[in-house]
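Fold this complex.
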Amino acid sequence: MGILVKLQAFEGPLDLLLHLIEKNKIDIYDIPIVEITDQYLEYVNTMDKTDLNIISEFLVMAATLIDIKSRMLLPKQVDEDGNDIDPRQELVNKLIEYKLYKYMSHELADKQNYANKALYKQPSIPKEVAKYEPPVDLDKLLKDVSLERMAIVFESVLRRQEDKIDKMRAGFGKIEKEEISLPDKITYIKKYAGKQKKFSFRQILEKQESKMEVIVTFLAVLELMKVGKINIVQDHIFDDILISTT
Amino acid sequence: MEGIVEAILFTMGNSVEVDKIAKAIEQDGKTTKEVISRLQMKYADHSSGIRIIELDGAYQMSTKPEMYEYLIRVASQPKRQVLTEVLLETLSIIAYKQPITKVEIEKIRGVKSDHAVNKLIEYELITELGRLDAPGRPLLFGTTEEFLRRFGLSSKEGLPKINSDKVVDFKEEAEKEIELKFNE
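Structure:
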């Protein structure tokens, strides 16, 4: 059995296997698994490995072949009827099925060549005729509809709407955007400090309108302290803190 | 009545369901089919350039394929695309096994078939037939009227019969070739 030198691209592992089988004139019902696996692996090694999608398909088959090869060395398993299970059987069935559809596709291809030569006409109906729709007979259309039925349908639609809403999760509050931004407060304090030159920490906090504003103001003071834009002085412990610009 | 059917099929251009034709000529299905059949035979006999084809219970008028070479002298026709092998294989699997899911197609071909299936849908040769009642509810595919038209089939039953004996033939062919090698 010679080395395969052909660089033909194969659509897939089954395609390649069929090619190897045909090339080596192998009986598909009695595949010499060792030779086939070796040739297959040889070929796969020469393949372009950059397209992972394609190469992975081939590798799966390589693993399958090696698996079958090793099973052939083990004592044959027996199925429920007491018959030997041939480890190659599943693969052979797959190959035969694939080969069958390949063959049928050639038959179809031939038919295509003939049928393609027939030509067809576009519809040539005048627009008014094409657009014509028989007038709607309202009585017939609404024959079975009664107010009761409409009420029932309406209720079921409402129910479906209700069912859609998860009562538990719908109760959770909204996440709101923070209204008071730190950069804004920093600017505010810088301006204030610019005007006042010296001011008390408590003073500026008391000026704030909400708890959130107090917190953000505090953070702003800390931030300005960190970058060295303001000085903090506290004369005695628990005294008010005096802030001044640097 | 044949004249009416002729006029209908000519004007409509596309395929027309037999019930619609029956309604127009005010006859039942069976009679309508007989009328159409007579028309078909007339076209076949009288070396007419047109014919009427059947597509799954609908009828359409077309030129005879034999006329093609003359037609392109009058109005050049773009060559109709012939499908690649990959597409043909995928298409034949779907044609014979419909309705079938993409996974089942891939099992037979041994490779991923997304591209092939999408192209076939684009060419309107296959279509979604619904979903399989199984986990994941995968799409089922089948062939279309356009498929019948392009392959000269009047219905899915017209597909060339699968002959598992053919496989036996392959085997015999292979054996014969081996024998020849021995005798050389």
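The domain at 182-245 of chain A is CATH 1.10.10.580 (Arc Repressor Mutant, subunit A).
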